[in-house]
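Encode chain A's predicted structure.
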Amino acid sequence: MIEKMLKVTVVCTKENQDSTLKDLRGLGILHVEPVQKLSNTELSSALQKELEKVNRSLFVLVEDHSREETHAYRDIHPQHLTDKLITAVTENEALKKEIEGLTREKEKLEPWGDFSFESIDKLHKAGVNVYLCMGSEKIIPLYSDKGTIEIVSKIKGSVYFALLSKEQFTKDELPLAALPAQKMNLSDINFKIAELNVSILANKEIIHDLTESIANIKDYKTYLEEKLEFAINNETMGEEQTLRYIRGFVPKKHEQRLSEEAKKRGWAILFETPTADDKTPTSIHVPKIFNISKPIFEFIGLYPGYMEWDVSGCFLIFFGIFFAMIIGDAGYATIFLIVSLVLKYVLRRNKRAQLSINLFIYLSILTVIWGILTCSFFSIPAEYLPRRMRGIPFFTDDASANQHFELVCFLLAAIHLSFARLWKAFIMINSPRALGQVGWALILWGNFFTAKHLIVSPEIPFPQIGFYLYGVGILLVFIFFVHWKEPVALFETPLALIGSFIDVLSYIRLFAVGIASVYIAENFNNMGVQIIESSEWLLPFGVIIFLAGHLLNIALGLMAVLVHGIRLNALEFSNHMELKWAGSKYSPFRKKLYHLKKKKIQ
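Encoded structure for chain A:
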């Protein structure tokens, strides 16, 4: 259920601006909407830069629970820790670039061996010019008359040779080899690279030691976020002579509490009913039975608009069915269930994790039920399973199993989408357009019979009831749903009718993905059996094929759930429910929880 909200304006004096913000933050119920644009003062800009630095630090750091604590940086303020970390990372980036440059120079020198540029300079002063050249072996005779040629090395068809002459030649007269700009010997370059690698390792050690301070840095991030939020709210308050005001939204249930606080603090306060033009945040109160749907919405980041509807219960029920049909295997689901129950015990004190684990238990149970009905246990042939585990004939009869699976998909589509239309009709029960929604529901059931006739059982004539459903449904849509004053509606409605049929057809994806999963598992099973049957010595390889194949299949199934299971709810169902998911989460201005030690920055 989406909670009722009130638009609130709190007015205070200029002198009490900071204390008012602190009191409102203490209440923790006001979702703030900026009254004016952020001016980016020196404080907020500095906080944003510091927060960016901390975020970059946390991106670099990875928690390593196996690492022994050194307490090397236990008493250092997190700001110094992030400075030290960024310095180490920045230095390493610069050192790596320097190594890359030296490596390129090294590649230029390697064909010549470890020689000294100083010795070449000495020969030049003595009147002997040394030219280091490169080319194919065929060109050497062309330069033999210019001086003495000494071949140094031959690499991949190229000859590296030194030409010694008392004459001086220009670059255009000889095929001179590319040499380093800095006249460093090969041994000097190697020594320099080794030196830089030592510095990189030292910086990596600093980064590793800082890993044990990650919790403190996270708390510092929360502290900065709280401070930045306060600064932004302070800078975006409205101004009117000697008065300051802040605007936002609070749940209606907190109206009396905020009114009492206003009387106590001497604030002027105005409550208004939000309009369609307001950016009202969405606060959803989910019934306890549907609480496990929260992790899904947090993961996909979708929120209904304030003027829309909470569909979390319906979303959860059908998402569970889609999950079961896509994964489809009772064997996989049993593994999921065991892992979930173990995690539920291990993480029993972590309330946030419990919600996600309970969701996965629910999904696993539904998948076990579906897998039993369809006789799917790691895609093992039914004849090798006990009689009680061979499913029901509706799904396991070889001649018609796929047809029945397709039928279930289209039936599910009709139930799911028509429920959306009838729910919308119930919401707008006092409007004639509710009958238009009923018309769409009838059309969707007509689409079900059309899909059944065209794909599942084309040999059976189209049922008479389908014509009645289409006739009554289209009549209701054109009378009560179409806006006749808008000419565009006359063109959009036929397209919407076609679209509704495509929406029903799109549920066939559940069959396609489910059957693909079965075939993948069967093929890996067959490969494993063939390897084992060819030689008993290959038993370990056969087991590896089994495990790798099923693990891959599980991974692909979970990816398919994210794509198809969520899509059918968030797109097809939502379109028929006329949900735009344009909401923003209710996020009140409140104190944040952190345990930052109060250390001075030295």
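The mean pLDDT is 89.
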